[in-house]
């Protein structure tokens, strides 16, 4: 499956069409689906097997989301480095996230009202429904305290969250804002400036946690996003072959012997993310064979935003005797269908339209920079 040729630079890999980063995103999205299937099934809600192995340090969902943030830091900073213009940068981010999110919210809310609510489709004319849809589509205005009426709809799914996965989009958008502001404030060549600021901010998360307290600091994923930015600034010099993965695994094993004697788990958060990050970057930098469709089409975002409502409605519709594995299989099948429709009918067309608009005004036109 993997081309075993010499490892190419991260810069070359992220600029090519034959890399494995879409595959990494897809695996991360499916890992989140697995994590939630064990939690949302009604037969025996419990942590999934991998989460039980990593407990109490972290869980499969957090590791998968961490990989998303690491890769996002790499590609979003690449977009800025290729075209450091705040308005165009903002447009790319908005077009990548919001159209598909709005359609997802509209469709899943309509289905939930039709089949899993007290009020039925009449709920579409209720202000609470539109507060939920518009509040989530606008990422809650990036407010720190999210109004509870933007997270649930009264009478729908017995008051449970209709889409509990969207919290990461709210935080990621904040990271985009900070990256854009850093870029605008550049007082040195852009690549060196982002490299320096990534290091400063990574240190500041530990030394001066009050600097951006209440905005992004308390979210551990911020450090992974910054690490992605730092890796992008060094990308022409970095090559991720199998060796970093092997070293990360060895360090994880060596650390296990110490921590197992001192803590409830032999694992550490840094060790887990180091191993997961090294594996993701190795696979992403490789040239996977036989995966041309995945390399061209990125279904991961829509899998992520659709799977929770699909899974929640399935769990509510199926007998309580249906366990995690059956719920997982049905969710993956239906969510892939939603994701394919979203990518081909909403996400890719929206990005192509923006690319054409920017081309007319002389903006950078790469679809990959907008991804």
UniProtKB/TrEMBL annotation:
A Pfam family matched in the record: Acyl_transf_3
InterPro entries, alphabetized: Acyl_transf_3_dom, Acyltransferase_3
UniProt keyword terms in alphabetical order: Membrane, Transmembrane, Transmembrane helix
Single annotated GO MF: acyltransferase activity, transferring groups other than amino-acyl groups
GO biological process terms held by the UniProt record: lipopolysaccharide biosynthetic process
Bilayer-spanning residue ranges: 21-40, 60-81, 93-115, 173-192, 199-217, 237-254, 266-284, 327-346
One annotated Gene Ontology cellular component of this protein: membrane
Acyltransferase domain sequence ranges: 19-341
UniProt cross-references to PANTHER family, sorted A to Z: ACETYLTRANSFERASE, ACYL_TRANSF_3 DOMAIN-CONTAINING PROTEIN
The name this protein goes by in its record: Peptidoglycan/LPS O-acetylase OafA/YrhL
Lineage: Bacteria, Pseudomonadati, Pseudomonadota, Betaproteobacteria, Burkholderiales
């Amino acid at each position: 499956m993997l081309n075993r040729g010499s490892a190419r630079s991260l810069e070359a890999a992220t600029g090519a069409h034959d890399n494995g980063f879409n595959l990494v995103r897809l695996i991360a999205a499916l890992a989140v689906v697995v994590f939630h299937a064990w939690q949302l099934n009604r037969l025996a809600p419990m942590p999934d097997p991998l989460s039980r192995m990593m407990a109490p340090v972290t869980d499969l969902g957090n590791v998968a989301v961490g990989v998303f943030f690491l890769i996002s830091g790499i590609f979003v900073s690449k977009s800025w480095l290729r075209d450091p213009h705040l308005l165009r940068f903002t447009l790319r981010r908005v077009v990548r996230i919001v159209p598909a999110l709005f359609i997802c919210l509209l469709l899943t809310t309509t289905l939930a009202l039709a089949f899993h609510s007290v009020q039925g489709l009449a709920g579409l004319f209720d202000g609470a429904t539109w507060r939920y849809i518009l509040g989530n589509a606008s990422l809650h205005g990036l407010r720190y305290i999210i109004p509870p009426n933007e997270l649930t709809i009264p009478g729908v799914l017995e008051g449970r969250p209709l889409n509990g996965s969207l919290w990461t989009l709210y935080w990621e958008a904040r990271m985009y804002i900070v990256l854009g502001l850093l870029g605008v404030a550049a007082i040195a060549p852009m690549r060196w400036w982002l490299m320096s600021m990534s290091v400063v901010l990574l240190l500041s998360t530990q030394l001066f946690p009050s600097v951006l307290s209440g905005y992004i600091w308390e979210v551990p994923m911020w450090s992974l996003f910054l690490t992605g930015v730092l890796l992008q600034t060094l990308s022409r010099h970095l090559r991720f072959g199998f060796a970093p993965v092997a070293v990360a695994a060895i360090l994880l094993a060596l650390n296990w012997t110490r921590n197992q004697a001192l803590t409830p788990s032999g694992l550490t958060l840094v060790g887990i993310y180091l191993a997961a990050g090294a594996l993701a970057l190795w696979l992403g930098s490789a040239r996977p064979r036989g995966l041309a469709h995945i390399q061209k089409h990125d279904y991961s975002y829509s899998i992520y935003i659709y799977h929770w409502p699909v899974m929640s409605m399935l769990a509510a519709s199926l007998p309580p005797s249906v366990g995690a594995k059956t719920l997982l299989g049905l969710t993956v099948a239906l969510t892939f269908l939603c994701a394919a429709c979203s990518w081909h009918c909403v996400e890719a067309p929206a990005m192509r339209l923006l690319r054409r608009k920017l081309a007319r005004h002389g903006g950078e036109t790469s679809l990959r920079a907008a991804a």
